[in-house]
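[job 4471] stage=fold_predict status=RUNNING
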Amino acid sequence: MVNLAGYSYLLFAEGGGEGTNYFPMLLIFVAVAFFFMMTLPQKRERKRWNDMVEALKKNDRVLMSCGIIGKVHSVQKEKNEIVIKIDDDSNTKMTFSLMAVSRILGEPTKEGGSEK
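[job 4471] inference complete, writing structure tokens
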């Protein structure tokens, strides 16, 4: 069994009377810096994704997280669903969760790539 009280004494004890031990303050500073380094990029990415989903409209080409590429047939934000038209010839449609949208693609060019 670990004696936490003994370890906390070692962490917060003054260094032999020479002065103040700055280790606890340094530990707190590093923890706060690490927290912000982890959360701020995630917030930024979530905001970018939310803006992208808000901008979805009919006939946008989208890439789903499973790798399927199709055109948006309809977006039902209250149900968190998107209907994707997979094939124009057979009029095949699939319904996905909005969370499955990976990104919006540009219109395909004659070479088979994408404009965006």
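[job 4471] summary: The chain has a mean pLDDT of 82.
[job 4471] exit 0
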